[in-house]
Specification:
alpha+beta; two-stranded antiparallel ribbon; 2 strands; 32% helix; elongated
């Protein structure tokens, strides 16, 4: 994911442009940010409805995901962000 707002560690140094105006959240990207958010959503979803199948969960996530000007950005759509520019590719 790109542009994911996450809690900022009080001991981490973030560039000013990455900090949200509240000073306690930062705008980050990558699977290190998106995976925990999705995992938390899935945990709450399955706690509420434990009989859901993996297909049910996928369909619910796809059907209820927000589509906006932020979700259209992907790696490669912004100059210098092709997959080979990022640590861990391949």
């Amino acid at each position: 994911g790109i542009g994911i707002v996450s809690a900022a560690s009080s001991t981490a140094a973030f560039p000013q442009e990455r900090l949200v105006t509240d000073g306690v959240h930062a705008i980050l990207e990558g699977t290190s940010q998106s995976a925990p958010h999705v995992t938390g959503i899935l945990a709450l979803l399955l706690e509420h409805e434990p009989t859901l199948t993996p297909t049910d969960v996928r369909d619910i996530l796809s059907r209820t995901a927000t589509q906006d000007e932020f979700t259209t950005r992907t790696y490669g759509s912004v100059p210098g962000t092709d997959a080979t520019s990022w640590w861990g590719y391949g």
